[in-house]
Amino acid sequence: MKNYSLPMAGRSGAQRPNGATQGKICQFKLVLLGESAVGKSSLVLRFVKGQFHEYQESTIGAAFLTQTVCLDDTTVKFEIWDTAGQERYHSLAPMYYRGAQAAIVVYDIVNQDTFSRAKTWVKELQRQASPNIVIALAGNKADLANKRAVEYEEAQAYAEENGLLFMETSAKTAMNVNDIFLAIAKKLPKNEQLASGLSGQGRRGVDLSENQQQTSSGCCK
């Protein structure tokens, strides 16, 4: 059974329980895409800082944050680009998802239009992003399930057809927020390509095991 954990915000270093030695450290670029007001920034804030703000200001351009998760003997560092959802920033999106190893496409379960838009983002990633990119679909605002416009089964079927990870999330209650990042971390390649010296080439991830001072703030427990 896999053992994995999230870091504690505000602590430095990536430490192991019981004095265990530090394993491999891999760095991956992850981008969030989706319509404005679906909760992309709230998901990131919940994941990175464990916080939720009822009224979150719209992102301008993109915001950058980092967080680490631990999988067995591997520490995965996410470099997270939270992109703006407004249409006027759409032309900037390729600049952020270019070279990304992972993406979370977010929609609002109470807004059917945002789900349609999410499908457009998935198609764009499949066409223009790195061929091996791991894509997750997040149906956010699951705390408003009594007002849902997008059925869980509909989104799940779409995700299965397109080879996407899928979870409904709630940044407000923290439902599945950590889980979706952990699921991505587990699916990212961390062994053969890195061990064979292909790390640092961008699309396959960067092995930071010999340069640990670059790890983000956070403590794996």
UniProtKB/TrEMBL annotation:
Claim: Nucleotide-binding is one of the keywords in the record: yes
Sequence segments annotated as region (Disordered): 1-20, 195-221
SUPFAM superfamilies registered for this protein in UniProt: P-loop containing nucleoside triphosphate hydrolases (SSF52540)
Pfam assignment, any one: Ras
Gene3D superfamilies to which the protein is assigned, alphabetical: P-loop containing nucleotide triphosphate hydrolases (3.40.50.300)
Keywords: Nucleotide-binding
Nucleotide-binding recorded as keyword: yes
PROSITE patterns membership: RAB, RAS, RHO
Biased amino acid composition, Polar residues: 209-221
NCBIfam families: small_GTP
Sequence similarity: Belongs to the small GTPase superfamily. Rab family.
Protein name, per record: Ras-related protein Rab-5C-like isoform X1
Organism: Limulus polyphemus (Atlantic horseshoe crab)
Gene: LOC106469291
